[in-house]
From TrEMBL:
Pathway: Porphyrin-containing compound metabolism; heme O biosynthesis; heme O from protoheme: step 1/1. It catalyses: heme b + (2E,6E)-farnesyl diphosphate + H2O = Fe(II)-heme o + diphosphate. Its EC number is 2.5.1.141. One of its GO terms (molecular function) is protoheme IX farnesyltransferase activity. Keywords: Cell membrane, Heme biosynthesis, Membrane, Transferase, Transmembrane, Transmembrane helix. Converts heme B (protoheme IX) to heme O by substitution of the vinyl group on carbon 2 of heme B porphyrin ring with a hydroxyethyl farnesyl side group. Gene3D superfamilies: UbiA prenyltransferase. Its main location: membrane. This is Protoheme IX farnesyltransferase. GO terms for biological process: heme A biosynthetic process; heme O biosynthetic process. Belongs to the UbiA prenyltransferase family. Protoheme IX farnesyltransferase subfamily. The keyword Membrane applies. The lineage of its organism: Bacteria, Pseudomonadati, Bacteroidota, Sphingobacteriia, Sphingobacteriales.
Amino acid sequence: MKDFISDLKQLIKVRLSFTVVFSASIAFLVGSRAQGDINWLNWAILTIGGLLVTGSANGFNEIIERDLDKLMKRTADRPLPSGRMTSGQALVLSLLMGLIGTLLLVRLNFLTGVLSVFSILMYAFFYTPLKQKSPIAVFVGAFPGALPPLIGYFAAFKEPFIDEIPLILFGIQFVWQFPHFWSIAWVLDEDYKRAGFRLLPTTRKDTISAFMVFLSAALLIPVSLLPTWYGFAGYTLAVVSLLAGLVFAYFALQLFLKRDLASARKVMFTSFFILPLMQLVLLFDFIKI
């Protein structure tokens, strides 16, 4: 049982799944504050359902890439390429997680359930195959990757509606993904090449790719200030976002100037912290409009 749980955690990429669920959970609490009431039972349903849906998408991703994972040092020990789990077992687990997770999210409202299914399909069956074909995969993958705050926000309402708040939450996470994934692709370039993944803007660690990392990191600064501009966050968020964004952009500028692995690692590790930091500050600095 211990080995099965360990393999399941690798199949669903548990750390990535919890990061995604964290984003959705924070957005749910923001949405709850926007309407003036927090339903903790619904928050728990969102958290469990979101974890299952994300795990399902990651499971499908590993099934599709099982042969490619054998070629990369970073992924060779995953349950499918190592042979500890069969594709059939992974498929059953992924289908069950996707079905149960979607049913849970549909209980909150229909739109939340539909978006969860859309995120699975986009991530597993559009983004995943594109990784070997074109750098546009990062752009395509940014859409399902930015859906968690949208799903979480809408989950807070019985009858969700679209206004500037969920769209801006989506936009911040959408823009963040470009420097995040491009810096990861830079750091893991040698491993990615073994599987034929083409994720850097030019498919190479060159000046243009480095400039795109810097440009996207710099673009995150004005986008992260939109909550304050539109009046649903205070100046605390603006100050934190500006300072964190400047640090992030500085590391990205260093990557552009030096084009070295150390600079790429700084961008990558900073990207891990900047998004949850801004989301947490937004939660506590939220202003109901």
